[in-house]
Design goal:
alpha+beta, Nucleoside Triphosphate Pyrophosphohydrolase, 4-stranded antiparallel sheet, 2 helices
Length: 155
């Protein structure tokens, strides 16, 4: 069985009752909303990762304001590729404040669009579970930094 560890950093950017999200094609090609962020490069600090990824995916420069928590997800098996694998995703979630740049979408990357979404509308969006996990961390600010469980395929 192939084993894979992916460490990534994501930002929860909220302003005027809206959440900054990016759009990515889901496993079946259906677009889904994701938090801006992504995988760390080897040797990169996660603080730098989240700032780089937000800039790449949205055009904005952010100031990291808080470490909200860390989510750990392990998924064993991947029927989409027809082979077994053991994938462990370690997701570091920060709060961020936009301090510059202009909203734009990413070209040639993992996302194709970025937009501010009303917080009240987020539950109705087609989104990855990490959006709900991160919003729970942002709202609850648990001192231990561990999110409440959210239903996720394979969890």
């Amino acid at each position: 069985m192939r084993r894979n560890l992916r460490v990534a950093a994501y930002a929860v950017c909220v302003r005027d009752g809206q959440l900054l999200l990016a759009r990515s094609p889901g496993p079946d090609g259906t677009p889904e909303w994701v938090l801006p962020g992504g995988g760390m490069d080897h040797g990169e600090d996660p603080y730098d990762t989240v700032r780089r990824e937000v800039a790449e995916e949205t055009g904005y420069r952010i100031r990291v304001t808080d470490l909200l928590g860390v989510d750990s997800l392990r998924v064993v098996g991947d029927p989409r590729v027809g082979r077994r694998r053991d994938h462990h995703a370690l997701r570091i979630v920060y709060a961020g404040e936009v301090v510059g740049g202009e909203l734009r979408y990413e070209v040639g990357g993992s996302t194709d669009f970025a937009a501010w979404q009303d917080l009240d509308a987020v539950p109705g969006l087609n989104r990855v579970p990490l959006v709900d996990i991160a919003l729970g961390l942002w709202r609850g600010r648990p001192p231990h930094g561990r999110p409440e469980p959210v239903p996720y395929p394979g969890r």
